[in-house]
Each structure stands twice: as C-alpha cells, then as structure tokens.
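Notebook entry, structure prediction.
Reason for the run: the old model in the group folder had no record of what sequence produced it. Starting over properly, with the input documented here first.
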Amino acid sequence: MNHWSLDALFTSFDAKEYEAAHATLNQLVDDALAWEDSKDAPAVKIEKGLALTRAFREQSIRVGGFINLTLATDTSNERALKEMQRLQALSAKLSPFRTAFETYVAGADLEALSASDALKPYAFYLAETKKSAKYLLSSAEEQLLAELSPTGGSAWSRLHSVLTSTLMVPYDGGEKGLSEIRNLAYSKDAAVRKAAYEAEIAAYEKIEEPVAASLNAIKGQVNTLAKKRGYASPVAQAAEYSRMEEKTLDALLAAMESHLPKFRAYLKRKAKILGHASGLPWYDLFAPLGESSTTFTPESAIDYIEKQFRSFSEELAGLARKAYTDHWIDFPPKKGKRGGAFCSNLHPIKASRILMNFEGSFSNVITLAHELGHAYHGEQIFKEDILNASYTMPVAETASTLCETIVKRAAIDDAEGDEKIFLLEQSIMGSTQVIVDIFSRFTFEKNVFEARENGPVPVRRLKALMEAAQEKAYGDAIDPKVRHPYMWVNKPHYYSPGLSFYNFPYAYGLLFAKGIYAEWQKQGDRFVDDVNTLLQKTGQMSVEDVAALIDLNVQDESFWHASLNVIEAEIDQFLELTA
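New structure, fully documented this time:
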C-alpha cells in the first residue's frame, strides 16, 4: 500500500498497449500534418484541429505520465530515459501543426464562428489560442525549437534532477540521500539538525558547478526566447502563462512585502526560545516547538486526513480514502527518487498520482493533505473536456492550500498546551515558507534573470544572490552567518525551461485559499458547491475571473492584506502563548 501503481496507464514499457499508444500517436501526427492543406470551411477546419489536439493530448498524457512517473521514483531508469527521448522526438514532429493551428485560429473571426454548436464549448480555449499566437515565431523556427528542446533546456533540467536525486550525503558514519538529509531539519534533536545542515551544505560543493551550468543554460534560454517572442520580460511571460495580469501580481507582492515584519517577529521569538541571540540559524528554521509525541504511518496519516476532510464534505473525505486504497500514492523516500512531493492529474484515466518522501512527521501529513487537494482539484476538472482542463499555477494551488488549511486548523483547534503550540507553530512555519521564503525565491530568480543577461552567472555570484534575497525577505530574523546559500541547488522549480517563476503561485494559492476558507467558515455546507464549481472552471478563465465567481477582487491589494491578516492572527496567538 506504500507504493503507487501505474497499471492504469500501462503495466510496462514492453506491454502491447504501450506500443499501441505509440502507434496511435504516430498516426495522429501524420493526420495533423495533413490538416493544414484541408479545404474545409473555417468552423469545420477548426473543429477537426481541436479533435486532433484532443486525441494527441489524451495519448501523450497517458504515455508521458507513465514515463515521468517511472522516472520520478527512479531518475536513472535507462529505459524510461530512452522512452522520454522517443516521446519528445514524436512531440516535436507535431510542432508545425501546433503553429499552423494557432496561426489559423489567430486569423479567424471567432465571433462569427461562435454560432457553431461544436465550437461553443471551446470559446475560451480558442480565445487563449488566438491571444498566444502573437508570441509565435515562424513555423520553421518553432519546429527547430521543438527538435532542440530534448538536447537544450529539457536536458539541463534532467541533469539537475539526476544530480540532486543521486547525491549521497556523508552523515554520521554512513550516507543518506538528499531528501533524507533535508528531512532531518525537522528533528527534535538540535545536534541532528545542525549536523544535517552542515553535511548538506558540504555535499552541494560536489555538484555546484554542473548545477550552476544547468541553471545558467535554462535561464539563458528563457531570456533569449522571451525576447524573441516579444515578451517584455520573463516575469511578464510568467504572468501571461498564469493567465494573470501583472497588476494582480504587483498587488500580491506588495502586500506580502508589507507583512514581512510580523513574520520576522515570529522567527525572532522562535530564535529566543531555542537560545539564539543573533537571529535564527537556518538549520533551526524547521525545528519543532512545543511537544508532540504523535508520529504517523502512511495509513494513520490517511485516517487522520480523511477525518478532517469530512468536515468539508464526504466527497473530499472519500477522495483521500480512494487515493490510498487505489494505490495513487508513493510514500517512502529512497535513493534515486526525486525529492519533495507532487501530484499529477491524469485526465485520460480520471485519476491522479501523488509522490511523497514520507517519514512520519506532522509536516509530512500536511504535505500529503496539500497533494490530496491537488487530486481533489483533478476530480473536479475531470468533469470537463480535456481541452478545458488546463489550469494555471496560481489557481492550481487553491484546492491544495485549502485542504492543508482544513487539516491544520482542525488539529490546532483540538489541541491544548504544548501540543497546541507545536501545531500552531507548524502552521505558521508553513505560511512563513510560502510568504517569506517564496518572496526570497521570487527576488532571487528575478535577479538571476537580470544577471544572466550579461553572461553566465558563476557559483559564487549565485550564492551571493541567494543570500541577498534571503536577507531582503528574512531581514535580521535569520542569523546572517548561517543562511542557506545553496537553496538554488535543491529547488527543482528553478529548472523548468517552460515555466519560470514557479514560486509566486504558491503565495497566491495560500492567500486565495485563506479567503475561500474564511468564506466556507461563514457559509458552511452551502459554499462547498461554489468551491467545486470554481475548481471545475479554472481551465476556462483568467485568475481574475475565477476569483470573481465568488466576488473576490484579486487586483485590490486590500484583499491580500485581509488574507495575510488571518496568518498574522495565528502569529499573534503564538506570540501570546510563548510570552
């Protein structure tokens, strides 16, 4: 029960169904490449283009999901790596069709075509296609970029994944994987936390140069392509990809920055409790306070989460149980398994898969609740056509953050004494990561993009930029002699050539979900259907329009202040309990 099953996708790379899927993909590519020469009327031609796009997406998600999920638990799997190259090459062949289809839609009169019953369900998809077409290069250039991707940014991303997932850290007379050594930051033993941090920092020196080369290659590629495509900057491109106006992002970031002093007050109190006079050393950032004797097995974690989810709805509670009994979750850390956690929604099989590095802490339980929230979002979006199911990162964090909030708040409200302090501080700790550390990550990534304009950024400069970003976010709450100059090494979010600034959406999601949670607290069960509808429609709206479904204005800075005040109330409660 502790490992996921991928049999719903394919039983193996040698299965006849797997080869049949590849044959279907090849046929779809041939059909798509012939599409441009068809003489159909505009509505019919676009309808056929959508059908081809839908069919290819369904098959590629099945095949690509099986490959990526196999690699997630075994990053050096040679067969999976070979199959990845095979799929990437096949996908690259479809590039001329994608360019031709977007160009054709861009030139079409969508208003005139809106009378077509076949096209009505895809009005938003077509409008977004037309909007994005202005950033296209020529068909030949797009084809070349697609063919180069496996040996360009994607290859550098894979290198980072392999280097960090296979790095063995000498510790206590033996060795541990990076995810295992980082999990020791949550240990109750101060000596263990400090030793693990020092071992982690020392180990990064072994891979700092190739990882820096990966980061420079990816950020350099993004800089170049953003300019060529006509984006004002990588930030502007990220906002566009998020279906977010920059005014919304500016309001979010401004509100976050204005509330940093309250988070620093929490960190300073934590430093005082732990006996540090010069601010909190990085290795104690995740040190547990209070006392909790509770540890969790995978099964007891699911039991606990299911119970708390039931306060929201039976549907949400049932999702948690189904994820466990149907083998959606891969729990334990191991050598060769990628770090962190994620949830992959697999629309063709109407199911998800969740990767964990679970070792029994309450923090692990919160992470599991978060990822189950992504799976719940999937359950709602699976009700839509696959072409209307692609939601952006900011709203992607809505259900996940709502679910972890449900579990956190229930646990805090039920606890007393040291247990209450423990759980309350765990909640604030998580919010601090999403607000303060995300602010530092956004600052770092923005500065790296700017520095990369002048050439490759050396390791020493990357470390300096990271520490400067941490100083801007954490201020004097973190001991300046014990920061984390290598946070750019272990965070995979920096290494996506197709999705930059994979950080501010978490802050957006946290605060947007806080607003939804507060509304649910007021309205109760009748609000659950509104939440489900909101989640279901995230693939067909901008983030501003999604918020408007429940009468929220995310361009108004006061909305973000109100959500941040909810977290500040928790900090005030913590400061009072620890006075």
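Summary: The longest strand covers residues 342-346.
The old model has been moved to the deprecated folder.
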